[in-house]
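Please predict the structure of the following assembly.
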Amino acid sequence: MAREKVYLEEVFPSPFMQLWGIFRKTPVAMVGFCCFIFLVVLAIFAPIIAPYNPIDGNLDMILVPPAWHEDGNVSYLLGTDDLGRDMLSRLMYGTSLTFGLSFIVVVFSLVIGVVIGSISALTTGFKSSFLNHCLDVVLSIPSLLLAIIIVAILGPGISNTVWAVAIVFIPQFIHITRYAVKEEFRKDYVLASRLDGANNFRILYYSVFPNIVERLMSQATLAQSAAILDIATLGFLGLGAQIPLPEWGSILANGLERFYIAPWTVYLPGLAILFAVVATNLVGEGIRHALKLRKDN
Amino acid sequence: MAVITMNINYFPTLTLVAFISLLTGCNEGDKLTLNERSIIYCSEGPPETFNPQLSISGTTTDATSKQLYNSLIVYKGKNNTLAPSLAKSWHVTGDGKKITFYLRQDVSFHQTSYFTPSRLFNADDVLFSFNRILDKQHSFHYVSGGQYPFFESIKFDDLVERVEKINDFTVRFILKQSDSSFLANLATDYAIILSEEYGSKLAANYSNHDLDILPIGTGPFKLKDYRVGSFIRFYRHDDYWQEKAKIEQLVYDISPSKTSRLTKFLAKECDVSSYPIAHKKITDRKDLTLESITSLNVGYFGFNTKRKPFDNKLVRQAVSLAINKQALIETVYRDQAERAKSILPENSWAYDSSIAEIAYDPERAKELLTVAGYPQGFTMDLWAMPLQRAYNPNAVTMAKLIQTDLKKIGVKVNIISYEWTAFLRRLSQGEHQSFLLGWTADNPDPDNFFTPMLSCSATDKGSNHTFWCNEEYDQLLKQALKTNNISERKNYYSKAMAIINEQIPLLPIAHSKRFQARDIHVEGEILEYFGGINFSQVSKKPAKSIINQVIPQKIEALLPQDYTDDEIITEKVKN
Amino acid sequence: MLTFTLRRLSLFIFTMFALTLLSFSLSFLFPGDTVINHSGQINASATELAELNKSYRMDQNIVIQYGAYLTHILNGDFGLSAVNQSSISNDILKLLPATIELSLVALLIAMLVGIPLGFIAAIYHNKVPDSAILSLAMLGYSIPVFWLGLLAILFFSIGLGWLPSSGQISLLFEIDFVTGIQFIDILLSDSPYKWQAFRDASAHIILPACVIAVAPATIFIRLSRASMIDVLASSYIRAARAKGLNFRQIIFRHAIRNALIQIIRHVGLQFANLVTIAMVTEVIFSWPGIGRWLIESIYQRDYSAIQSGLLVLSCFIFMIHILIDFIYAGLNPLARGNKYGS
């Protein structure tokens, strides 16, 4: 390592920056990351970019195939559905519903999960055992099933779906935070700050969190890809977003009826879901890969 | 530990080998015979009951009337002439008040695992079947709810004084007044004949309810097995009094989802499919055909005239004016329907073309809304039927289009849909504000449109879900039934049409064709001109003979029809 | 092993308690009368209602009510479906085996495909086959199952016409219900078309089972890859290599066995995942299983059915979970150690 500074000054990049350095060098992960950013932008600016209203159809333009098809129309790039709604606009708006909501859901459950997880990491004995049992029960039930259960209780609808998925992911974050915090607390640097007189909260905030944030992020990407799939699946089953919301899963379910005459109404939302999940997973893989490399170094 | 690993190592190979040998080592011969002897029909919904007396839903009559039962008389041919069935002849007295039926003496009832008949069909069975409906003291009248919607809608109990048994094979209906649609009504899918012997046996076992669940009739098929909401299995009735059915097994595969029904049909999991979507997909395939029949029906948008705001005639008019029917027909029916100008189809003899239809006029609609006291519009519920019928192939899409139309005059529409049985139940309880439904005629008599859909008698329990009741209208219908003079009748009906057009208890939308798709191996007529379907004439050709010789001719024979259909549909899709 | 069993037992009892309590409380959370939600008897007359109130101890305090509810459940009485008034326990008994059958076949496929692929990836660690398999796994893991199912139907059933698209068996065959597992029932039946029925049933199960298997198979790929990489890096493999065993012998005699044990541990969790995927797939392939039934019950707001369906399904998943834990513990003594209450 060549040092060009005059004074011998050790500047260690923060763990997070180290990770970013490695992450940046993995081309596949960067592609995924760009797609992810693209989706985030789309989710935020969909109402501005989208050429048409996603809910009001143009009845003169029913079931127009995508533009590359010989009967296609360039002003409807991805075609229209059975009510003459522009597929491109619906998919764009759908980004903010399926992808955007899943992002918000994950952030929400992450925050709640981390808080509960850190508290529980500091408790021991019966309370801890009880929590463990509960977590074990909840974690053994797959997220989609749990979401279906919660939607069954709350009733179908997009807001209920969001709540259900949020509730489902909290235990995962509790579990991972608890595990990570406990592991960190056994390490010497925590002992050092404890000897300095820091209280638990201070240790958590200044020493532990910076060291576990990547692991949480990696878990968050896993959770988000699952959340996208869960929201879309519930939408597809008719338990999530209701007519006429352009949620990807429900667009797909809606297109099913015209599957044989307008297959693009089924292919396109499916591809959109696949794209979003792959992008998220690529980012997650990139983080995990980088984490592993950093550890190896 | 080692043992287990060994197992894991060997298991896959073994299973794979077994699996492959099973799949490829075919001996198709036997399976073909079973396949040849059976028909699988993909139906659009489950029957509510196995007794069509109790229901007016087409799904129920499709599954029961012509398969399990016979009626005294039937409609035959395209001219709709009345023909004998269980009654070999009949006689009407000059005043039209006494109708005598002479019954066949060689008709046997089904023999099933739950009932073995000891005698042939006779006059007691006719009396049992009709007295059940007419006589409130009858031990079976209140079994299964005591509601006979079709018979209530035509005021059967007001019309029939009594049914008399003259001798074992002669019965006489005594009417209170002459009624020109009486015979037509007896030829419908609802006026079927049950077994009196079976009824007495059930009564002795205190299991009266089974009469409508485990049916016994005289029809070409008998019930073998019904798994609720999943499938119905019929076996052939071997002692059928007419030529017995050519197939031994008839299975109704209940598939309410349009797409999965088409998928099953395209994947050849069923031989015949009701109400197919994506017609082009079917006509494109050489081994499948699409057929249609112009049936007398009407799909409509009804208002609950007993609930606000639709108790106000002006609101009903305004809403009707705001709906672009032509767009509905293009989108929902894919142009496979005629725009309805009144509840009566134009090909009915009673149709009067001088009565103007309610045209699309959103401006006028807005004015009327203001006059009616809703200048800001209002919010309403629209109930869309959950399944597909000829008269409305996609009520939910139609509801969405209506939602858009009405938004333009400031009316906000909430679309509501329930599972079919619940939908009908809640409709008859009047929980709705407005609804999308339709009516398929059971006989060509115009009265079959006017009375069941909108008369006062059909209001409470029957089929008039608008709860609209108009004395003058009812009077006109009554007078029309009293006369046998066609031009007089037409006159009455045209006045009735004018009242409907002015009051608008419902907005007629379309008269559509009924479509059905089938595999070319399946031969014989299935679609009946009125109402239901009939599998008694259907047979299946052996696949081999088709491969060898029949296919070339068959395809040629089909081409012209295929192409015409094809062209129409392709054009619409492109639009 | 005793402590292990006791721990599992306590976990099991705790879970059953939690699940029944949840199911019990659902009756209060759902709209409508509690006792009607318990029993599903929507058309109950006044006397019947009084009878029900008595049998569910509705006049007593909540603990006793819960006890009465438990008694009903333990007697196999889940009440009636509010939609068609059929006995829910009967419905479940008829539908659950179909789901189990489908899930087991799918699990088998997932393991048969996933584990060898994972091993291959590990053996070629960081080479082309490894990254190819990993990319494939990533794709399989990301694809929405309902979409995959539709594409599979479109391609294999309609395009190629090879496999049927819906149901468990062609309706032509009449197979009496004995166990509910179709293949066993066919073998037990005396139908003259037994072997055709068997072939038909096999053809019916392939497509849905493969679609379900895709996601779990990718998990098995990752698991088996990771565990194989660990095993290959371990000292006993180095020792074996030093002994002069060739690569093949090392892989087949030592590595696979030890890697497999690690995987078995995850089968339980994957089975749960698989059952959920199966629920969605059942809807697409019209498979007459409990998942489709449950989802339809949700559409129709059939509260008593939802409640019991959820209870049975989660109990079933949990039991499988514990069962696999036992198998794993039986195979691997190291796993019987302390795990909870730390």
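Residues 88-301 of chain C form a domain with the MetI-like fold fold (CATH 1.10.3720.10). Residues 44 and 144 of chain C are 43 Å apart (CA to CA).
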